Structure formats: C-alpha cells, structure tokens
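Hi F.,

I've been meaning to write this up properly since the lab meeting, where we talked about keeping a consistent format for the predictions we share between groups. The idea is simple: the sequence comes first, exactly as it goes in, then the structure tokens exactly as they come out, then a line or two of notes. No screenshots and no reformatting. I'm using this chain as the first example so we have something concrete to point to.
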Amino acid sequence: MATKMGVLILHGIGRQKGDFAEGIIYELKKRIRKAGHEPDDISFVPVHWAPVIDSKENDLWDKIYKDNDLDWIKLRQFIISVLGDAVAYNQRPPNEIYTKIHELFHGYLVNLRAVEFENQDKPIVIMAHSMGTHI
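Output, unedited:
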C-alpha cells in the first residue's frame, strides 16, 4: 500500500553523515504513535546533500594544508566546512553545485512519488535546518 504522505528532511551546513536524520525520524514516529496515528503511513526521506560539496571542500583543505604549517586545524576545517557550503551554493548565477544539489533534491521527489506514492499526488512536508531551508 502506498504511503499517505511524505516528509523530506534536509540537513544544515557542515559535515553531515548519511544517518543525520535517524534521531528526528525516531522522535517523529514516537510522537505520531503517541498521537494515535500510524507512522508507517508516512514516508520519511532524508535528503543528504552534503556529499555534493564535500569533495570540493576536501580539495580546498588539501591545497591549504599541503604546503603550510597551520595552527588551529580543527577551527580551519570547521570554517571551510561551514562557510564552504554557503559560498559554494550561493554563487550567482546558479552554478554547478547549486544545480547538482537541486538535481539531487528533484531525484528524491521523483523517487518518493514513483515508489512510495505509486505515482499519485500526495502531501509532502519539508523539514529543513539552516542551509537546508535555502535549498
């Protein structure tokens, strides 16, 4: 049976693991059950967009770190990870990163409709944090 609705969850800036949404999904299901509804009627879809940018941020880090004796390494890595996401995504006109992230997001929507909704229109809720709200 097709699910009744979808919840797409987008993470914020910084290094994110593929399991970033497990805690929120667990908590949502618990609250939905407590409210007397069936969480299996909802398809929860984590949208993990970080890998689109990670390789470019890693390349930048390698170039900076390779020939330099740096202090404050963890802070520098954090800055690249956090600011790098925003800078890479928000360049004008829409750039390669922006386009790849939107193609990824579109793929999640297409899959949700085709597989979980059995090609029917159903309600979708989008939960996003930080940079995820811009996407």
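Notes:
The longest helix spans residues 96-116.
The two ends are 30 Å apart (CA to CA).

If this format works for you, I'll send the rest the same way.

G.
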